[in-house]
Amino acid sequence: MLPTEFSCLLGLLAMAGLAWNPYPALEQSFHDLPPVTWDPVEQFKAFQIQYNKSYPDAAEQQRRLEIFADNLAWARQLTKEHRGVAQFGVTQFSDLTEKEFRQLYQPSQPSFSDPRLKMGGHPKLQRPQTRSCDWRKAGVLSPVRHQKNCKSCWAISAVGNVEALWAIRYQKNFELSVQEVLDCQRCGRGCEGGYVWDAFITILNQSGLAKEKDYPYIDQLSHKGCQEKKKQAWIHDFLMLPKKENYMAQYLAEKGPITVNINSRLLQNYKKGVIRPWVNCDSKYLDHYVLLVGFGQIHNFTYWILKNSWGSSWGEKGYFRLHRGSNACGINKYPITALLEGSAPRMRCPR
């Protein structure tokens, strides 16, 4: 189990529904992404209608148009650099500066150093390495959540990890309460941001989690504080995995989804395809937790499949893909997973 000296201070020092439908495969050619219209004024008009955006006066309208145009130019450059592998364009974040986007969802203190988490006792993996794995096809993932105005990606990714492991291990599909993690977090930061290991420790301290329907998400801390609800699922422990992408892939295929921490910079304008960062995604600046749910390959080009927490209208129905094999955006820095008691998983990851 966890050492008693594991504290909130360690985290602060280390880092500054019930629809269970398989998700279709997203295999595609590098050259079949649809063209993008780059006229900023027309795009801005369509953007305002699509996302119901309005501004208090003409000056703010003009300022947001200029920001939008800058983001559109940046998206065009990124799409050009990706040479048909990925597409960037208009998203719900297109009228925000990079600083505003960072402040919207990400904690104020990104990670620059390793937390001293438990590293030993890594399970020996038995199955041979596969070329692809997609847990969406198994129907073990909960619907994509939207964190809204709460910096709760750390809690959402941890809860999603537990949900998937219970579905794989025990064939029990349910949505668990993210709000319980926020309200009952031992460090008390909640919607200010947090660390995934604090989410797992909270689940351990609470002796499990309630169902989402019994303790619903409200994207802020509850005025009632931490509430006692009937527990639906629990964990035995949690573990940081080796920082090796091949091991991460094999563990993912054999055991189930894992949480990872990445640099979110290229997600602001992401539309679809495989993100292949070159110099635009510092692997040391990590500010966003997501759930790693699979991997695949197109024409010998390998990628990860990740579940985000910005709603199903963002990206590829709430998911995105990231190049595998180059530590893209720092994906192999903090691979962490909950551990369950009991027998080995009863299902294989669909290819």
Distinctive features:
single chain, 351 residues, alpha+beta, Cathepsin B, Chain A, two-stranded antiparallel ribbon, 28% helix, disordered N terminus
Q: Let me know the largest β-sheet.
A: 7 strands, mixed
What coarse outline follows from CA principal-axis ratios?
A: globular
Report the uncertain regions: 1-30
Number of DSSP helices?
Answer: 8
Query: Gyration radius, to the nearest Å?
Result: 20 Å
Spell the H/E element sequence.
HHHEHEHHHEHEEEEEE
Strand content: 5-15%
> In percent, how helical is the residue content?
25-40%
| CATH-assigned homologous superfamily of the domain at 8-149 and 238-339 | Cysteine proteinases
User: Which architecture of the domain at 8-149 and 238-339 does the CATH hierarchy give at level 2?
Assistant: Alpha-Beta Complex
CATH topology label of the domain at 8-149 and 238-339: Cathepsin B, Chain A
Domain Peptidase C1A papain C-terminal: 129-339
GO molecular function, one term: cysteine-type peptidase activity
Domain Cathepsin propeptide inhibitor: 44-101
Pfam families: Inhibitor_I29, Peptidase_C1
